[in-house]
Amino acid sequence: MSNFCQAFFKKRDSFFEYYLKDHLGNVRVLFDTTGKIKQRTDYYPFGLGIARDVPVQTQAVRNGVNRYLYNGKELQVGTGYLDFGARTYDPLIGRMTTVDRFAEQYVYVSGYQFALNNPVINIDMNGDSAWKVTNQWNDNFIAKFNKTLPGYIQKYIARNDRYTCDDLGLSLIMDFAKENALPFQWKTGAKNFDAASNEYSDFASFAHDVKAMSGAPDFQNNSNTVPVSAESADAGGILLNARPGNERAHHVQMIMRRSDDGGSLLIKQGNFVAWPRAQRLWGSGDPDSMRYLGTTVQTGSYNMLSGVWRNATLGSANHRFAKEERLIFRVFNFTNWNR
Q1: Phi then psi for 30, rounded to 5 degrees?
Q2: Cis link prior to 55 (omega < 30° from 0)?
Q3: Is 79 helix (H, G, I), strand (E, B) or coil?
Q4: In this structure, what DSSP letter does residue 96 have?
Q5: Where are the domains of the chain?
Q6: pTM reported for the whole predicted model
Q7: What is d(CA 244, CA 234) in angstroms, rounded to the nearest whole number?
Q8: What φ, ψ does residue 163 adopt, rounded to 5°?
Q9: What would the pLDDT profile of 53-65 be if each residue is shown by its tens digit?
C-alpha cells in the first residue's frame, strides 16, 4: 500500500491535522500532531464508507472531523454526495447525479456512470470523464500537442497557477495526455511513474507526485525525452540549461514556436521565486507545500544568432546566455510510452 501524509492548516483553530491515503487516493486515517487518531474510514469499491462505528451512523453525519474522503473528494454533508468538481457523485448507488458531458464518447454505458463502471482499473478525475488509455501516440497526436501548447498556457495564466521550470513542462504533457486518453510514463531518480498502473486512480495525486519527485535532470533521461538538433527545435521542444562542464541540467524552458525568420525561439517557463538558495529545501519543489517557490508563467525569447536570452515578464536580458549556459535541445519521447 502506498500511503501519503500531508498537513492541513485550519485557520479558525490554528492547528495541523495529517491524513494517510491508500494507493487509490482514498483518505483512510486522520490524526493530530500527537498521533491521536481522529477519524478512520474504510470503503466499498464504489466509495461508500463502511460503517464500523457503534452505534452505526450514516456516512453523511459521521464524518464531521474531515470531509475529504473517497478519491480525496469532499463529502457534502446532508446529501452524502462527493464533490468531483464538474459533477457530484452518489457513492450509495455508484452513479453521478448529472449526465457526463463526454457521454457521446461512451455510448455503451450510462451517461451517469462512474469510472466506466469499474473503479478498480479506471479513474474519474473531476466527474466528467474517466482517464482510460484508448489511444496511442502517433504523428497526429504529436502534432496536436505541439499546436495546442499555447492554449494550455493561457489556461494556466488565467488561473494564476504557479510552476517551477520542470513542473510547467510536466503539467503540459500530463494535461494533454489525460485529455486525449494517451499513455504517459516518467522516470525519475526516485521513482518510475506510469499513468496506467494500478498504483493511482486519481489524476491529481498522480500529477502531484510526478512533479514533486521530478527535477530538471529528469528531462535528460532518454526514456523521457530524446535529443534533437538546435536547427530542428520548434513548437513542443524543450530547451535545457546546464552549466559548462556540468552534465546535469538545472533549468527547463518550453519552446512555443520558432520565429518566422527562424532565428529566435519563443519560450514559456516556470521558475523559482527570488529566494536564498538554501530555502529551496524542505518542500520548495512540492506544489502542495506552503514552501513551494514556483512562479506564474514567464514569457521570453532566445535569439539563436546573438545568443541573447530576454525574459519579457521580468524585463531582463542576458547577453551572455549562450556562453554562460550549455544549451541542450530535446523533445518528449512520446512513442516510448506506447504499449
Answers
A1: -120, 130
A2: yes
A3: coil
A4: E
A5: 5-92, 133-339
A6: 0.63
A7: 24
A8: -145, 145
A9: 544 445 544 445 7
